[in-house]
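Help!! Second protein's tokens look totally different from the first
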Amino acid sequence: MIDQTILIYLVVSLTALVILIALLLVGLAKAAANKLVRPPRKVLDWKPSDLGFNYEDAEVTTDDGVKLKGWIIPRGSDKTVIVLHGYTSSKWDEDYIKPVIEILARNNFNVVAFDFRAHGASEGEITTLGYREVDDVRKIIDWLQENKPELAKSIGVIGYSMGGAVSLMLASKDSRVKAVVADSPYINIITSGRRWIKRLKPPLRNLLLSVYSLIVKYTSKKANINVKDLVILNYADKIKQPVFIIAGRKDDLVALHEIEEFYKKLREHNENVELWVVDTGHVAAIKDYPKEYEEKVVGFFKRWL
């Protein structure tokens, strides 16, 4: 028979251990959330002139005082495309931003490319994962109308990943946007976030998945957002503009069935919606299918801008 003193000691020790583990897991969730809203910055040294295009540096101040840094590439056209990068990326991204700038400018679209808040060279310590970024892009359009009216006559947007989600939310709120290309947009940031964690190796992957609901909670708190506002499916019935969606069958962050569900919901009230599904990964269509990508994206913007 176990001595009562020993039994009490075991119970207290076990309770303390459980509390310690719980505190460590909470601490892990808070640390993960803090890292998520403060992404690493991608700043490189190439510029549009390296591609053979004249450009201007530009700065736009958001409604809450954050200075956004960008490039204006005028091509003498009345059609302008705003390019939006993904989470942790920037206007310097060489995988998809650099090639799409080259494609658009070579086909004589004016190009506008800015770093989101807390990305690249822009100010801001915290990303809101797309929520406030929508209003930031609206501010960029305001700036164009006030300072470069010749570039604001007919505006389209192409966005990648988080930028794709921003482009869709933007279209639902701003009729100045005439057409949207959304490449690998997250449809539900919660499910995409879980898939992002699954990219990691164990044991970190397993630990983060075990506290994922806490990570979502603390991320929402730190970014001052409601993640339900980042479920893009909820914006489908408000998007009236032509939309071209690009999706990869091998995308490990955005499930094809989510894209297809969003596409079907869009088509219920908007007949000018196209979906191109290719055998590639996240935001990789421009690299794996460059000729078709250029033909489809350029053709889409020429039709609708």
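Here's the second one for comparison:
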Amino acid sequence: MGSQLEQLENNVAKLRIEVDAAAFEEAIKKAYRKNVKKFRVPGFRVGKVPQHIVEQYYGESVFYEDAIDDVFPDAYSKAIEENDLTPVDLPQIDIVQIGKGKDLILSADVTVKPEVTLGEYKGIQVKRPVYNVTDEDVEKELEDLRQKNARLIAVEDRASQEGDTVTVDYTGYLDGQEFEGGKAEDQVIELGQGRFIPGFEEQLVGMRVGENKEFNIVFPEDYGNNDLAGKEVTFSVTMKEIKYKELPELDDEFAKDVSEFDTLEELRQSIRERLENEAAQQTQSALENAVIAKVTENSSVDIPDVMVERELDDVLQELDYNLQYNGLSLDIYLQITNTSKEALREQYKDVAHNRLKSRMVLEKIGQVENIEVSPEEVDEEIKKRAEQMNVDVEQYKQRINPSFIEETLRMDKIISFLIENAVVEDVEEDGQADTSEDEA
């Protein structure tokens, strides 16, 4: 049993794998014993037909497929190990030689993990955005908190105005016919937020409770539903309720009501500290992303399509998870955006490719620089995560894959190494940091 690497081009290795005649003959006998009860030959009881009779009756090759299935996995694994290959897909197999008393010779085309050619990764120049939290940022957070804790008071003696929260029934008509998704009852709308199609909320300003109003609206040209994009429709709206916000006073009592603090000044200080922590995290994240982007740009790797497609599967699975977390699903998202799954895959293909390339470049840097993670570091991280989740360490170990923790720590070390060896220029940024999560 042996193997030979015949060629390696475009990340596809061609292996010649040989299984000696004796081993293949034993696999044929094993296949016979496994399948003998399936064969029917006149003059013989079921399960008692001799092997050579079965081969005469059904053909010499009757057991070849099962025999190959038996010997190939071990022969293939040894060939991969002998030639130091890392497959990323199942091999394509061709039979070169097969027959009684002959060595089995197979040819396997194997798509393998590509080699990364590193560019400059030490001394790279990157910019680090520095966000300063201002008094205005703190006051804006306080005002948002005040808005969230406002009381809604019903209005009877005046028309609706911007800032009011109204409840309406509406029906939309296209060419005189109701269109799908154009009807709602008890729809709550905060006027001035711009969450409906342009012009819709403006038409509700000035209406009174019980009033019905009809008006025309043109859907935007880039609207997600092609049947409505750029079309003029008619809406019939009935105003059912108008409420205005009664905002609480910003004082110590407000602080007690909305937080664990006794004074407004303590609440202000807590908000400032939170914003400063978020700004620091945003700054660090931006620096890490800049370093990763730079070393990825400087390096090259020819990634096989099969690897990109699998990474794309992961990207879309994460998208689906995030949508479900927000009460949607991938199918509903596709309907809302009027997008097919094929178009969505094409849309995210570059994201998958770039993410995969970045990870491979970081892995290569880790190999070159001998950046490793010790078992003690993995155990310490597991212990820390278990404490954060308030669960027993041993129970947590059963729920997670330690190799995932190890890989996460290794990537963190590699990124820290790159930052330590980078030339970082701080750049002052205006305004509060955007603390929303980056897209995966």
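Reply: Different proteins will give different token patterns, so don't panic. The two ends are 46 Å apart (CA to CA).
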